[in-house]
## 1
Amino acid sequence: MMSITKHFNRRLFLSVLLIVVSQFNYGFDNQAFAQTQAMDAFARQFGTYNPNTQTYVLEPYWLSLFNSTPYVGFAIGLIIIGSMISARWGRRMAMFCMSIYALGSATVVVTSQTRGQIMAARILNYVYVGMELATVPVFQAEIVPAPVRGLAVSTYQLSLGCGGLVINGIARATSNFPDRRAYAIPFGLFLRRAHHSHLLHLSPRWLMTRNRLDEARSAHKKYREGTMPDDAVELEFTQLHAALLNKPEQGHAAELLKGTNLKRTAIVVGMNFFQQATGQAFASQYGTLFVKSLETVNPFSISLSTSVIGCRLILLISAFIQASALFIMGALGLRATLLSQGGAKSGGGGEVAMLVIFTAGFLWGWGPLTYVMAHRGLASIVNIVMNFLGPGGGGGGGRVGFIFGSIAVTSHGVLRTYVVAECKGRGLEEIDRIFLEHVPVKNFARHPRGAD
């Protein structure tokens, strides 16, 4: 623990903590919509009446659209708006702008009355989520020292889980309300989006890119004073500035596909594809609806429990846990189908347990480490496709475990050989140099440290 805390002074710790708390909002957004679409009140307001069952239902095609089209707004916020503001006016200004924008989009969500309105509201709301992801991990990575950079960035997934825990608890409490209060109260939490960004200092690295070196040196010193001698602080600043000047890239999107950047782009796409394709979209977006369809336990109680449970070797173990849980879920789902054809009914408790185990495996490995190893911008298309092609409303039952389980097994082999570079204990500048030296991904762990 001392090896970690020695890198933080009071100012840096409070800055990282403030950013971590602001990240709860993504958990609010993601889980609030996942929970409310399983509520009877939400179905009555936005669903269609089925005369055969005499109930209101949300059709699978509409659920697929409802859970995929928001990533269009996500991509706009991430790739265009958030990145543009962050690059031109700084990370702090980007956080201030997105908090102001969020108040407007949250109001639209809470006051929506029709299907079209709630669909548009969710797309607008995800513009904010994209802006946050364009700013927060980058800001954290730029202000913390290299030894704890991975720890700081991985708090993004931790904050998602904590935000999800809060919203799941609220949804559990309101789920039995017969009117629109059931979903309006969880949505109302979106209005709690004030960022005290004025308390943060500007990013030293961003100030360097704007050639404001005196301000950059001052900001860097404030984030480091007390954790190392003044000459060491100045040396680190000089090294960071030299590394920035030596970068040949000019920040154009086409550079992602040139030279050694092509390998990095492939790693980013591969990581984000397998994060989504191994069942994360099913568990997070349709999990509550799936548990509700089993008619066994309160689905909101199960969602609450999965929120509480909460590089290379870790990813492989995580993929193994996910694949095992998914295959068992698939087998139980097939058994339930066969029993139902014979007139019997399966309890469904085993499938619920596997959903919990799958979530635990995801939160331990794939969830946080994807943010550490890859930027999310190139994954927006993957998010849209996987949520659209996913099992609408969990309609495939537990048998979808066979589909996602097979992908998880594939990811295990692909990761081991081609995708994941072991970067434990290395700073961004050292990783950059290793890529430029054309070291094979599988040899990263054995590459000498500090080699020239």
## 2
Amino acid sequence: MEIIKWIVFVTLHSLRIRIAVATGNTSLHSILLEDYEPDARPCGHCTSPLAISVSFYMTSLLDLDELAGTMVTMGYVKLIWVDERLTWRPQDHGGVSSIFVASKRVWVPSITLGNPSLKVTDLNKDMCPVRVLYNGTIIWMPGDVFHTRCDYDIYNYPFDHQYCYLAFVAWPYLANEVMLVIQDKEIYLPFYQENGEWSLVNTSTRNRVELSMSISEFNVHLSRRSEFFVVNVILPIVLLCFLDCLVFLIPLDSGERISYSITVLLSFAVFMTLVSDNIPKTSAPMSLLCYYLFLLFAGSVLVMINVAVNISLLYREQSKPIPGILRKVVILSRKSKIDNIEKRNTKKDETMKEVDVVGEDVNGDHAIELPESSKVVFPDDLRKAKSKSALDGRGLKNVCAER
């Protein structure tokens, strides 16, 4: 029986607390908003600007379009300021220390995106209520999808880094009326989801005043994930370069050289089209990859011209003389080989120079030196004699005797 009484007591007490809180919230709304003017900026004597703390929470990077020059992000902005008209004592209202109020019933700053890519709009103020604390502090956290402009530098594409930013302006208040203040040095990323194409390197913040308006700027440093482009664009191009060089291994009389070189040339043209479709049409600056593809394309054209000239020379009539220009080109291209052959022949002549041969008197065993006029050169026998490590004067004498 006592247990039942205890359960009934706890239930009634909790209901009493809930009723008191609900009554406190209802009375607070009625009391605080009875003579409240939502269009009037909260300020004491309005001699100093209203300071609003700004923080940006980035949740995801939805898109980064180099062709259109835009960046699409999702997140929410946290704004904190003080409204002295919305204060109360919690003990007088059932211990209620904070309440939620619709944003259109109280004064909220008109925050506008400073660098939009689509249209100039305010933050989604009608969908997000504000939290009012007992000391007059108001916390407002509207979220939205932000379409901003971004200047891209594609010189190192696809290994490029991009620097974009989001700028928030308290439109149409001047800096001496409303001052946006960023307390943190970086963007908050507790709920950020990584993008498959771009990697977030770091973030930064900055406060500035421009055209007498306070601006809060949030910068993002992005790095492209280049693995996809390396595997699908750069590596195939490198392999095509090797294939282009293999055209000279095909027999000239097979007739397949010209078709092979044309196929490789068209492959380079296809890759140039793919790359140009994925980067901005700009010349300030242009990507290094475009220059690289053009050089490879030009080299493939030269290879095809060379193959065509070779085939033309192969099937030309023997009676026709070779053009003088082509003759000079061939001589110049083979000049280094001709010089090497002449150097080798000169070295052979030096090694085959005359050798002083020591003879032996027919009736004696002592050797005599032949006169200068009777020096003889025995290249083959001398080469055999030098190959023997134990060759002495007797061996050389026997060689001379055999001669």
## 3
Amino acid sequence: MTVALVRSPARRSVVRCAAALCTGALLAGCAGVEGSDPSARRASGAPAPAPSTPGASTERPDPPDPTDPDALQERYQRVVRDVLPSVVQITTEEQLGSGVVYDDQGHIVTNAHVVADAGSFEVGLATGGRPLKAELVAAYEDQDLAVIRLTDPPRALHPAVFGDSAKVRVGQIVLAMGNPLGLSSSVTQGIVSAVGRSVSEGEGRATIGNMVQTSAAINPGNSGGALVDLAGRVIGIPTLAARDPQFGAAPAPGIGFAIPASTVRDLAGQMIRHGEVVDPDRAALGVTVRTVLGDDFQPAGVSVVDVTGDGPADAAGLRPGDLIVRVDEDEITDVVGLAEALAGHSPGDRVAVTVRRGGARERATVTLGEA
């Protein structure tokens, strides 16, 4: 079945969908507005100070497995009590979404499409009270992450504990916490359905590697919230929900994606320390490309328009006019597919790139550079 990817921006009472066809699944970002340039956006003014108590701790141990339904229920309730105070509602003039308290200095991590073009925000804490003012620290659209900071953080902030993405396992029970459709402090449950997914929001938008796929319901307004294991550790930031283009882009239940905690800690830490992402650690071929259509008017590969001098592709012998059709075992039909294939790699990895050149297929080994 063909699936395509979109964001589904959410306002308080209206959900809009803007489809962007690509390979993979039809994905809806669960808050924010579509159409941001894929680049890092830095707030004006000096960078915020580094947190004294970062939300990157992984010290919370695994609890013993429950032996009866009552024990499992009690664990669910304990996790909700422990983690929900760390999940906030973020409101702009246009929309609302979710965020996670990162440290005791008032930094909150969320999705870049939640903050969109706004510069100031109202933040509602799960513990209640009047909305708090916040400002943008930085947004990094390439990986759909952003950090905002409370202008007057209260003493009673509850920073989240972030888990180790490498320890996430398929079948693990997880809870998704956020503010779907403006219903504040909502919790849904499911399992980890898959790990290591590379998913794109569409051509020209974020392509994110190593995502956690989950069956926990992710709806508009959940973006930027918390995907939590039963030890109370945030293992991901819910970002995209699937929609099925064969049924009028209706929701595809049980298919959602979260940015892994390791990516969140790395990029959020850079944004807090430097006011921007200075080391994205994203793999690149060193080429400019475009999608080429076949005789049936369907995507048939990615044409190399330009090759960066002395870059990875240049060193491997790729040249303008080559048609990239495969990276390792992944068939490449369009630009989004190429981005997804590269998102699963790191700079320095060696990949086999198959191209069509002059009617023949050739294969080159490329040592990936950094974007």
